């Protein structure tokens, strides 16, 4: 068994089961990748991938276990490669964080400003995407941590640190009747076209479950991944929006108003996701605590130890 073969498996999965795309990303030939996968399957005694007419269409049940193990091995190797530099760099080096738009726009500016002041020799890089995209970057070792809400797809190889709850509000064009109705209910909200987050965000699927549990089916006028875009279309009168309370600022958001809906709609949890084998550099721990003061270095270390389980 070769590490290269495990890298091939991971790349095929990362490329959506497209063998040619995986070969291109690995700078090798498609027959070479296919041959190495076949050799690995022969050695293991079972098939990793489900095939239809010689095309890979998914993972077998044991193949899913192989991918999970291969991912852990890959991240462990990446951690070993960077450990020497990390231990001798002190408060220098590169630090890559990922977040969704709302966190990058409304939560992280203050944190990043303080971080840049404290650690001027750390090169900070910020990447954005939806929660699953950025957790995948962390899992693959392409980022140090992610700041996001919950994901539909589980990431069993990542430690999730709960930061705080993101409550909900109704945002509407000034003068909209939803802002003055005596009793705000899900039925009242469902009367109007909704502008909300894309279904990859917990703000969308949690909201839809709340309506479904109440026997309601709201009309989705449009969806997006950017809270600012949602507010723009609310101001045009195209619908009302269900957004996190942190994204509404009465001093900046002209033409729209917000009404608290926390008692009607479930909140989301802002989390920090990182690999359990991440070297906990002092500035990484400081960054985490700046996002959530209760996540002290001792709390983070204890959570990671509990995630890893007892040593064998």
Written description of the protein model:
The protein contains 11 helices and 12 strands. It has helices at residues 3-14, 19-25, 30-44, 61-89, 101-118, 131-139, 186-189, 202-213, 227-235, 282-291, 297-308; strands spanning 49-52, 55-59, 93-99, 122-128, 145-148, 159-166, 168-173, 194-197, 220-224, 240-244, 256-260, 268-274. It is globular and about 70 Å long. The two termini are 24 Å apart. The model has no long low-confidence stretch (mean pLDDT 89).
| DSSP strand count | 12
Query: What is the averaged pLDDT score?
Result: 89
Order of helices and strands: HHHEEHEHEHEEEHEHEHEEEHH
Give the overall shape, derived from the CA principal axes: globular
- Give the termini distance in whole angstroms: 24 Å
**How many helices in DSSP terms?**
11
Helical amount: 40-55%
User: What about the largest sheet?
Assistant: 5 strands, mixed
Structural class: alpha/beta
Q: For the largest sheet, list the strands in their spatial order.
A: 4-3-5-12-6
Low-confidence residue ranges: none
The whole-angstrom Rg is 23 Å
- Strand proportion, as a percent range, falls in 15-25%
